[in-house]
Each structure stands twice: as structure tokens, then as C-alpha cells.
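Support case: zinc ion complex. Customer-provided input:
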Amino acid sequence: MRLIDTHTHLDFPDFDHDRPALLANARAVGVEKMVVLGVHQDNWQRVWDLVSSDPSLHAAFGLHPVYLDQHRPAHVRELGDWLSRLRGERQLCAVGEFGLDYYLPELDRERQQRLFEAQLQLAVDFNLPALLHVRRSHAAVIATLKRYKLARGGIIHAFAGSFEEAREYHKLGFKLGLGGAATWPQALRLHKVLPQLPLDSLVLETDSPDMAPAMFPGVRNSPAHLPQIAEALAQVIGIEVEQLAQISTRNACELFGW
Ligand SMILES: [Zn+2]
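Agent response - structure generated as follows:
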């Protein structure tokens, strides 16, 4: 089984004590490529250093809404500088992680919107896919994406929306990132939505170290868990895991141009 983990934070200190072993384990179970996403200006160098050390890793850079208080206007310009400097590098794959988070009330929505749009503009300018964090904010994200029209689309990470929202994203050229969340028995709405989603819009992810799947509760998540996550998702969707692996890998390769 060949798999791609489209969303990880493998640069986080959680992995400092065993990163090379973990990467080797992930590859041994068929995870061929992993995307590492930057979340604030402080970790971009760490992300790039990590990715440069291993050809199976790919980097994205962004300003995550959850770290809103740390972001400064200069960071948007610096993000542009990073993208120009790395333009054409094989291991630069997207802008992200960024988006809108309406779940946490302390995050000012107008400031989030300005940062969101500035980064969408960078995705347009550099012709890169956008890897988006969308929490309780699908309507605002869909409305904004309709104005920006990203030629290469992107991924709605940890998709947990409705079928109608999935259809809107599909029309906008976006893939839907599925991972640990849908493996939990209590994710009833997701279990109804998943079998209705077009297979050509699905990509897989772990969000390591977060979003532990039901079979590894409460532990640090890892790309090496992706085969079991895929197995559980395939059951929910009602297809063979081998088919889900093939389709999701093809979808990710198409999106990132691999
Ligand atoms: Zn993330």
C-alpha cells in the first residue's frame, strides 16, 4: 500500500527524541511522502531544515490562525520572501497552514480574515496550492475562495463539514483531508457524509502529533498510523482500503504536481 500524509507537524518538539526512527517506520509501512506545514514565522526555518534533510518530506509555509497573537504584518512580507527564495524548489509544495478559526472566540475575526486573504493572494501570486485550517467557518472560507479563484486549489485539512460544503469545495478545486477524526465511533455526522463524497476529492492525513485516531487514543499521532487510519476510513466509506490508498495517493500527487 502506497500512502501520502498530506498534513503533519513533524518539526514539533514532540518528535525531537525519535524523528529519524519515526520517519523510517512511516516509510516501512508505505507512507512515501509527508507534508510538513509551517504555522508561524518562528518555525519556518525549522520546517525547511527538516524537509531538506529527507527527500520524502515536502514543506508548506503559513501563518496559522490559532497563533494570531504571534503574527505581525511583517511576517506576511517575510512569507512572500520565503516563497520567492524557494520558488521552483522540488520540496516546496504549498502555502499553509492558514485559514479561519471561528471555534476559538478570542481570535479576532477581522484580523483573521485579513491574514487569510493576504495568504490566499500569495498562493495566487506563486501559483501554489493552499492548505487550509477551517473550523466552524466553512461559509466564510467558501465565500472568500470564490473571490480569489486559486488555479491549483488546495486541501481543506481535517474536513468535518457537510455534503453541501464538500460540493462547494470540489467546485473550487479543493481536496478534502481525512484523518483520525472520522475513525471515532461518535463522529456520526462524518460517517454519513463520507460515503457521499466524490472519491476524486479525498486525500489522507494524520495531523501528527495531533488528532489521534480511535485505535491509538491519547497517544502522539504519527504518519506510521496512516495505514490503520486508511483502513478505518475505507470501512466508513464502504470501499477496499487498497482502493482508498490508490485514489488518495493519486489525488495528492495530482494536486502537488508529483
Ligand atoms: Zn495542522
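Residues 10 and 19 are 8 Å apart (CA to CA).

Case will auto-close in a few days if no follow-up is received.
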